[in-house]
Amino acid sequence: MKTLEILPEAHQLVVKGNLTREFITANIERQSTRDLSNNITHINLSQVDAVDTAGLAWLLLMVENAQKADLPLKLVDLPEDLVKLAKLSAVSAFLPVQ
User: Fold this and answer.
1) How far is it, in rounded angstroms, from Cα 39 to Cα 12?
2) pLDDT digit string (tens) for 10-44?
3) Degrees (nearest 5) of the Cα angle 29, 12, 87?
4) Are 12 and 32 in contact (CB under 8 A)?
5) What is the pLDDT of residue 84?
6) CA distances from 26 to 19, 48, 78, 89 (A)
7) Which domains are present in the chain?
8) pTM: predicted TM-score of the whole model, two decimal places
C-alpha cells in the first residue's frame, strides 16, 4: 500500500508517495505549515507517485501560507500529472514553479 511522507531536508520539504485525498490529513497539513517556518524554500515533488485535486489543494494552501508569512517558496520537480491537473484546474499560474 502506498503512503505519503513529507520530510524536511536541507531547506526543502520532500514529498514521497501519493499526494492524494486518501493520505492528506489535518495532521499533515498542520505539520507541513509548521515546517514552512524552518527555512523551507522549496517543496520537492520528484518522488510523488500519484496526485489528485486534494494534493493540488494542499500545494495551493502551502503557497498561500508561505505568501502570508512572506517566505520564498518554490515548487521543484513537478510530476507531469500534477502539471496537467493544475492546467485543467486553471491554477497553474498560482504555483511558483522553479
Assistant:
1) 8
2) 889 999 999 999 998 877 878 887 778 777 889 99
3) 65
4) no
5) 96
6) 13, 19, 23, 23
7) 4-94 (3.30.750.24)
8) 0.89
